[in-house]
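Incident log, structure service

09:12 report received: a user says their structure output differs between two submissions of the same chain.
09:20 pulled the input from the user's history:
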Amino acid sequence: MFWGVGKKRSKVGKLIDRMGYTQEDLAKASKVSRNTVSKICSDPDYLPSGSVIKKIMKAIRKIDEGAKTEDYFDI
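09:34 re-ran on a clean worker, output below:
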């Protein structure tokens, strides 16, 4: 599988690509809009609001229990 080949990806985008998940999967798990998830996954400089980060991290921790916010967002 070559998920994400050739796409500009953020740390969150690289994680879901590596784990075989889609942006749609992340949107459903985090209850964040598909457009916001797309921006989070494709723009490494994008910093969402604190409430969105919290929702995304809750979903990421279902995949990677030891995940820290600082691992995925430059805060």
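09:41 both user submissions now match this output. Likely a transient worker issue. Closing.
09:42 reviewer note: The mean pLDDT is 92. Residues 11-64 form one domain.
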